[in-house]
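With this grant's support, we have settled on a layout for protein records. One resulting record is reproduced below.
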Amino acid sequence: MLISVVNHSNIRDEDVQIAIRAVNRQIAEDFEPHWHIGGALKLEGALSENPNLNLMATNMRGNAIIYLEDEYDENDPFGFHDRNQEGIPFGVVFTELAENLGEPWQVTFSHEALELLADPEVNRLVMGPHPDYPDEDVFHWLEVCDAVQAEQYEIDHIPVSNFVLPLYFTGGEEWGGRNDFLGTRIGEGSLTSFNVNPGGYVGFYDPFLGGHDQVFADKKAKERNKVKQKFGIARRGTRYQKNDQVLENLMATRGKIGKPKPRFAATIRKPVIVKPQIRRPDPRKPNPRKPGGG
């Protein structure tokens, strides 16, 4: 996949090119050997607010686009793309958001590029255990950086994001295998399948709730999410929830369901403790522990 990079920010093109070189090395030398998904980033010319669509079609050679923006416009967050490039996979890196997270913009740039390669249409889900109810299956978003989003390393002195490996999205534990590129040690172990490292989170579709949910590793991850919320919901999360809302609206229109089911608030992941598996009570069935089943 060729990803066009459009710089609408105040970052100099020279600095963007340096970051692109580092991320291209990351894709070719680190990501592709594990995921067997290749790609490259290419810096395009700057686009005006109302570009010539014929010239843009000629100049934009990528299969997807990453926009570099300074600030988030809550009144029109992705309007430029929707007006001019609708239907083309895209990502947005807000430099102000990176600054608020205390994270170099290059890490956010790397994060977005890798996830755009792994799931360009934001429609891939992988069945796996619920983080807090391991005996129940949910459908995890195929996001390759979120679970380890607080970790980074350097390529040519440029910081880039850590990412999970395909083994992460498997149901069983393969002893001796690695689930993330850096293989960061947490206590006596390392990242396990469908789990999160400190500062990370996972998103998934939960059939029990009838909607999407998120689980955060710790308060740090929760705080990162609060910062992101100031800039609106991230594009990828928006797409997952938007698709879900479209389906619910369609089903409601056809009279098959009524009001959409309520969402549970996203929770903070608790430390893993070995204990008997506990199934969530089904609200549709009587509670046998209470007199009269109520």
